[in-house]
Structures are given as structure tokens and as C-alpha cells.
Design goal:
alpha/beta, two-stranded antiparallel sheet, seven-stranded mixed beta sheet
Length: 389
């Protein structure tokens, strides 16, 4: 197992991220040492697919540690991360009879984690919760840092809170059951984190993805090596996210430096617009981020911030993540309209996260981006079908 510790100023002042194959078996033990000593009832929030795979293992581990777990399964998919689902989750917590010393367990991907975290922050004015992310995207990004939210009709993640988990338990075995598209979405987020804030992390991610395409070792040997490399890479991704969060826990509005938590929004301005105009039905979040990075990269080159060779390397890394759904058939005006309503706007203006180079981001006001450049960047990014054989 690998361990990453997150140290914060606010409560909880610190928590642990535990990474390894089979860590789900330790869920009860981790919950017992992370939650109040009087905790007895735990509410598991998941979805049918994930719970069918890992629900009984989670329940068994929790019962062995002396807890009485109950479960509620939400509908699967980003479009169900809404106020209606949140209301149902809160009713479940009430019916389960949870008290202030009890807790919530999020078992699933980023949608489950966001909704469960928000529900835990609201019920009884705040219950402790544990993150058990089962997708790559949730393991390296969504489960770390305390952001929780649901979507409104006006846009994504517009209603939310900061609610830090008491622990994050990452079982890399869960990645073996992920559909190919979910893995591609997660790898796009991994590329994003390195591109936005750490060139060594970008290079580590790029090497791993390239080596998986070129693997020539016998299957058993390759599997052992890949498992170790994967755990190391996930730990590195979590450690990077933790460093950013520790330096800017609540994403302070006034910060625009390259260490601001806002750099993690690289690619998200366009991504949220793509998700909105397609009603969350075409793109996985990470897939939309893949296109968003390309748009931001094109804008960066157009402004003279980023060398074109760096954009080509970024494009190659995104291509290694896996094929993305097409985007060249979407209404450009609808996308630009959605961009104008991005929740990251300040003073009525959208703040773009662009690149000076791979590993160093810069926050730029939309007023510094000519409409012609934005239109050209959207077309250039969407016209490229990214896939590898």
C-alpha cells in the first residue's frame, strides 16, 4: 500500500489517502480509526453497477469493524447529479437514523462522490464521510480536495460546498472492471494535472501511457510491472493534487498565481460547455476535458504564451488516453454561449486557465482573448479526431 497525507488548516486538519490493490478490505479498519469513536451507523451511497461489484465487500468490511451499514443507490450518470437526487439522498440519511457521530461512505465515481459529499455536509449540518473512489478520474482528482456539488439547469456544479473527507481509500483493483471510456476519461484528467502544474508528473503520465501501448513483456510479467507503476502513478497524482489543495484549500478568488487551485480548472471551461450543450449525454467528464485542454492549448499558442511544439506533445498525450467522442458536429454558437456562463467567472468575466509551458499554467481574463482566436481554437480542437490503434 502507498499512503499520501493531506494536511489542512480547517477541520479535519489532516486525512490519509490509501492506495493499493485490495484496500477495500481495509475499509472498516480505516473507518474505525478515522471516524468518531461513537460512530455506529454508516450510510453507503453508490449506484447499482458499482454496488453490484463492490457493495458486499464494503459492507462485510464495515460490519467486521463493528459498524451497521445501510445503502442507497442513486441513478447512474452525470445528468442525475441534481437537486432531486440530493433530496432523495438526504431523505435516506434521515430514514437511516444517522446521528452526528455517524458517517457517510461514497462508493463510486465522481458523480457519487460529489453527491454523497454534499449530502453529508448538509445533513445535521455536517456528518463525516469517507471516499471510496472506484474510477480512475475519481481516484486521482474528484475524491481529493473536498469539493462537492450538484448540477443546476444553468450549469455544472453550481450548488456545492467544501467538505473534506476523513479518509480516501483507493483500491486499484476496481480499475479492472472499468469500461474503456471511463479509463480514457481518467487518463485525460491525469494528463491535465501534469500539464497544469507539474512537468515531471506530465512526463511520468506520458511515459506510462506510451509504455502501455508498446508493451512487449510476457503478459504475467507485464501485469506485475504495470500494477506497481500504476500504484506509483496514482500516488503521484494524488500527492500533486494534495499539494495544490493544501496551498489553496478553498480556491481563493483573488489568487491568479501558478500555484492557485484554479489551475486545476485547465480544460474545464470548454469541458463544462460541451457537457451542457449535449445535456451530459455524449461525453464523460474527462473526455470533455480532453477537448477542453486542446482548446486552451490552441488559445495559448495564439496568444504567444505556448510554443507550438508543446501543444503537439499535449495533443499526443491526450491521444494516448484513448479515442474521444466526436465534437465537430456541435453548434459553435451554443458552445460559446455556454462558455459565457462558466461558474469560474469573476466580476462578470470568465477566467481561462492557459499554459505558458507544460507544467506551468497562467490565468487569463477572457477580455484578453479575441473572439476570432476563440472561434479558431474551437474549430481546430474539435476537428481533430484523437485516437490511437
Amino acid at each position: 500500500m502507498r499512503h499520501v497525507r493531506v494536511r489542512l488548516k480547517a477541520r479535519p486538519s489532516q486525512y490519509e489517502i490509501i492506495i493499493g490493490e485490495g484496500t477495500l478490505r481495509a475499509l472498516g479498519e480505516v473507518a474505525r480509526r478515522s471516524l468518531p469513536s461513537t460512530a455506529r451507523h454508516l450510510a453507503i451511497i453508490s449506484n447499482e453497477r458499482v454496488f453490484g461489484l463492490y457493495g458486499q465487500a464494503a459492507i462485510g468490511s464495515l460490519r467486521a469493524a463493528g459498524f451497521a451499514p445501510q445503502s442507497w443507490l442513486m441513478n447512474e450518470g452525470e445528468r442525475h447529479k441534481n437537486l432531486r437526487s440530493l433530496g432523495r439522498a438526504l431523505e435516506f440519511l434521515s430514514e437511516a437514523g444517522l446521528e452526528r457521530s455517524d458517517g457517510v461512505v461514497a462508493l463510486g465515481g465522481g458523480v457519487v462522490g460529489d453527491l454523497a459529499g454534499l449530502a453529508s455536509s448538509l445533513y445535521l449540518r455536517g456528518l463525516p464521510f469517507l471516499q471510496v473512489p472506484t474510477t480512475l478520474l475519481a481516484q486521482i482528482d474528484a475524491s481529493v480536495g473536498g469539493k462537492t456539488a450538484v448540477n443546476l439547469s444553468a450549469g455544472k456544479n453550481l450548488a456545492g460546498t467544501f467538505q473534506q473527507p476523513r479518509a480516501v481509500i483507493i483500491d486499484t483493483h476496481t480499475l479492472e472492471t472499468l469500461p474503456r471510456r471511463e479509463l480514457a476519461a481518467g487518463w485525460c484528467e491525469a494528463v491535465k494535472q501534469g500539464a497544469a502544474g507539474s512537468r515531471p508528473l506530465f512526463d511520468q503520465t506520458y511515459r506510462f501511457l506510451r509504455e502501455q501501448r508498446e508493451e512487449t513483456l510476457p503478459r504475467a510479467s507485464a501485469a506485475r510491472r504495470t500494477a506497481a507503476q500504476l500504484e506509483g502513478l496514482i500516488a503521484a497524482q494524488c500527492a500533486f493534487k494534495a499539494r495544490v489543495v493544501m496551498g489553496d484549500e478553498r480556491e481563493e478568488i483573488g489568487r491568479t498565481d501558478h500555484l492557485s487551485r484554479r489551475i486545476l480548472n485547465f480544460g474545464h471551461t470548454t469541458a463544462h460547455a460541451l457537457e451542457a450543450v449535449t445535456r451530459y449525454k455524449r461525453f464523460r467528464h474527462g473526455e470533455a476535458v480532453g477537448y477542453g485542454m486542446l482548446v486552451a492549448g490552441q488559445v495559448s499558442v495564439g496568444l504567444g504564451l505556448l510554443d507550438p511544439s508543446e501543444l503537439e506533445l499535449l495533443r499526443d498525450a491526450i491521444g494516448l488516453c484513448g479515442p474521444l467522442p466526436r465534437a465537430d458536429d456541435l453548434d459553435e454558437q451554443a458552445i460559446r454561449s455556454a462558455l459565457a456562463h462558466d461558474k469560474k467567472s469573476t466580476g462578470g468575466h470568465v477566467k481561462w486557465v492557459l499554459l505558458e509551458r507544460l507544467g506551468r499554467a497562467r490565468i487569463v481574463d477572457e477580455r484578453d482573448i479575441a473572439p476570432r482566436l476563440l472561434r479558431a481554437s474551437l474549430r481546430a480542437a474539435f476537428s481533430r479526431r484523437l485516437s490511437r490503434t
